[in-house]
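User: Mind token order:
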Amino acid sequence: MKKTTLHGLALACIFALSTAAGSGQKVSLKEQALVKIGELETLMDQARAKELCVAREETVVWFSKEFIKFADWDEAHKEANEYLFGVYHQPFKSRKKELAEQLPDFERQKVIELLDKGIATLNSVIRGEIVRCPVKRVDWENIDVAEDVLLSNGKPIFLYDYFSKSVGRPLTDKQVYNDHLGAIFHGGENLYPVDHDRAINSFLLKEDGSWDEELLKEITGISDTNVGFLLFWNGGIPEWVLEKEPEADKGRSLFTGYDIDNPLVREVWGKIARKSGELTRGKKVTQLGYILSNEPHWYAAKEHWTQRYKEMNSISSYTKANFKVWLKENYNGDIGKLNALWKTGFQSFDEISYPFPLPRSLRGSPLWYDFCRFNMDRVTDWFTYIQNELRKGNPEADTSIKLQPNLFSENYRSHGIDVEALTELTSMIGDDAKTKWIRNLNAKQPEPWEAHYAYFWEELSMTYDFLESVAPNKIHFNSENHFLSASWVRELDMPEEYVRNVYWLATIQGMDANLAWWWARDPDGSPENRMEGELNFFDPALAGSYAASANQQPHVVNEVTQVMYDLNSVSEEIMAIRRQRRPVRLFYSETSAINKHRHMSEQFELYEQLFFEGFPLGYMTEKMLSKQDHSQWDTVVVYKTPFVTDSEFAALQQYLDGGGTVIVDALSLGKNQYGQPRAEKLSAGKGRLVMLPKSATVEQIQQKVLALSPGTKLPVVVSEDNGSTHKGCTWRVVKNPNGEGYLVNILNLGKHTAELQLKDLNGKPVDAGDVLTGKSMGSAFSLEPNGVLLLDVAAQ
């Protein structure tokens, strides 16, 4: 519906409302919303006359008009929505008819609330009560990719959009690609229902070595006006490959439908990677790089849920042979050494056998360690090969891999993903982090985070700090963020304050560009074509992705754009906060992570204890110790890490010999990767070695870390009282890059309102102002759960 038509409707509704009020008739929500649109548009004209920025209100009006239209479609198609509510998630199935009935007016009511807030805010701006930073719009057609930042008109910019966006709509459709919804051009968005999609996929190459010219057009025909990316979609393998190599789909994973060890598969994909690079070299659609894989993992454990989806149900003769070669190399050809550890009696490496999939009961055994480590090495080899072949066709190709952060933050390690190695390999950081503000829909009891926090941030923050520690100078592309919904996380009335907080947190911790999951509305209000008809997908989670998603919540999608506007309006300040030195580094060992049952849960104990102390945390590994500048941190902390290889142990000793500071608890470094006792002990060398007693609590370790790390002494200190003993506000302090004084960023992740006080190092109160509103805050104020503050603190 055109603006002039809606404006006319708004005027008509004003007359209708006055008439209805006089006669006692009920006024519809749609009529109320249209009147409020007219009121906000009138205010916008007044603001423009005062030369005030109204870009934020333009977005409010755009989403309001869209969702009025969407609500009309939902009103007319209740049966379709009833089916969508009932297709996957049990909590919605039992209420599907009720929810379909309520949805249209729910959307209209949220539009009214959105407009009320917009009207109130703009009135405050016009009266001078709020002074906002002007919106810095993204120049989608002219993005520069620098070393660690994206630039628009020479200034840092954070890009936003939606993943798998209204499939079937042309990239030139301004109702789908615009400043409100984002305008990153996607290459590879028709995912899941079929293998032949707009992506770099297995079916591009024919058996005779020629190319499927029609499928190639799906790559070459993508508009080259906007910044974009291309995706390697690995879901299937052509029949002609299977006829030649019947094992080609053995050892497949959920989203990689073939054996990565198969020689013919490697040959086919090598040709496809080279050809794709040649055809797309220099195009804007590759500015955000080539995503080499969608959520790769190869879980080898028998009891893992991925077994239901044919992931690693068996492995090919090629994988078995490669494992034997790997074992022979790693045991230096000594089968006796392997037999002693595995408790077997093989006569040679060729005779080696083992149960597969691996029973979980093997966890912590030498066999478990060896296969998990081999699985990681072979996956890293696969991606190294694909990236090398791609760069034969396009030497300048930027790359990332959509790594699931829970593969790092959770305890399981049979998945084959060496997060550090793959992040080092590619030229961009890639991920699809998720958070959640409610417990899983299928949870049978409260989740641990609920006791203290407004939302679950552990996976996001731990993994982002690790990724940014591995690759501090790379662009970070979250190509499928699950902040708004995930397979078992969704709620119709999502708090918009949570949306603002989590996008801000992710950006502070490194995110340069993000695609939210997902935008599935066509401009007429109908669900995009995959969500129509019977939903029967290989991945059943897709069928349930529409119901209770952001596509039904105007306040949520508006807030996504509003927080990105605000982040981009202060992008230089955000980059100053992000580029801070990380004075404390937590030692991470993949060796302990593979062997232990709860390694990452235990690591979070100390991470959480330090996360709320005002400085950015970092991680440290053997590779980082050997490659990175030691002046970038003060202290390395080793916590509950009993299993380390000899080379990991040697790297720590070398760091001490060079003058470094290491704090080690009594539970760490005592065993090698196979659980054998280590006789050697760390010595201080030229550095400082602090060996903690067995009795040391996590609070005592925190105090020791703070005492020995000069970088934790900050010029402005934030103290918090939230009525509990558990801190909830994470904060950062940095010199203001645009003037004197300091910037203080505070995010309340806690479930309680926090009473905050700001003081300098001498304990004197400091005067703070809110950068986003221009309001004076003084030195003491409250911050509600999910609250966000960026403060300008005057120099003393």
Summary: The first helix runs from residue 3 to 23. The chain is about 40% helix and 15% strand. The mean pLDDT is 94. The CA atoms of residues 719 and 757 lie 5 Å apart.
